TrEMBL record:
Belongs to the SmpB family. It comes from Alsobacter soli. This is SsrA-binding protein. Pfam families: SmpB (PF01668). Required for rescue of stalled ribosomes mediated by trans-translation. Binds to transfer-messenger RNA (tmRNA), required for stable association of tmRNA with ribosomes. tmRNA and SmpB together mimic tRNA shape, replacing the anticodon stem-loop with SmpB. tmRNA is encoded by the ssrA gene; the 2 termini fold to resemble tRNA(Ala) and it encodes a 'tag peptide', a short internal open reading frame. During trans-translation Ala-aminoacylated tmRNA acts like a tRNA, entering the A-site of stalled ribosomes, displacing the stalled mRNA. Residues 132-158 are annotated as: Disordered.
């Protein structure tokens, strides 16, 4: 059977849509994420938000901070804390490289999306990014508006 959009193992659980507007994305990485059972069940419900979250280095490990995964309602007393820091699983060489880029070059680690891969494992798409200033954001908005206008004119000409 072909895997399509309805496949439960290949779905996006949370997406940071403003990240590409607020940051210049240099590189993206795929990282595993350490979750408890109730967090996985809650993620499959699709109510998580990563809009205000970021990743940071602590004690030689990369942690996802401020990501909101709501409590799983059916778990009663075995539930998790919604905004707890979660460890990201990366190779040691990647951790060292990312930590060095954040410290030396002033870059930021921004999660772009949390999704489930083909094997059903939760993954985080992490971007090494640099923040945009107001002028860059204005330029991005102008380009987006122009592209939309150009597409509308091309449709009318047919």
């Amino acid at each position: 059977m072909a895997k399509g959009r309805d496949d439960p193992h290949n779905t996006i659980a949370a997406e940071n849509r403003k990240a590409r507007f607020n940051y210049h994305i240099n590189e993206t990485f795929e990282a595993g994420i350490m979750l408890t059972g109730t967090e996985v069940k809650s993620l499959r419900g699709g109510k998580a938000t990563i809009g205000e979250s970021y990743a940071g280095e602590k004690n030689g490990e990369i942690w996802l901070v401020n990501a909101y995964i709501p409590e799983y309602l059916e778990a009663n007393r075995f539930n998790h804390t919604p905004k707890r820091p979660r460890k990201l699983l990366l190779h040691k060489r990647q951790v060292n490289r990312l930590a060095a880029a954040v410290q030396r070059e002033g870059m930021t680690l921004v999660p772009l999306k949390i999704y489930f891969n083909e094997k059903g494992r939760a993954k985080v798409e992490l971007a090494l990014a640099k923040g945009k200033n107001v002028a860059d954001k204005r330029e991005t908005e102008k380009k987006r508006d122009w592209d939309r206008e150009r597409a509308r004119v091309m449709r009318e000409k047919g």
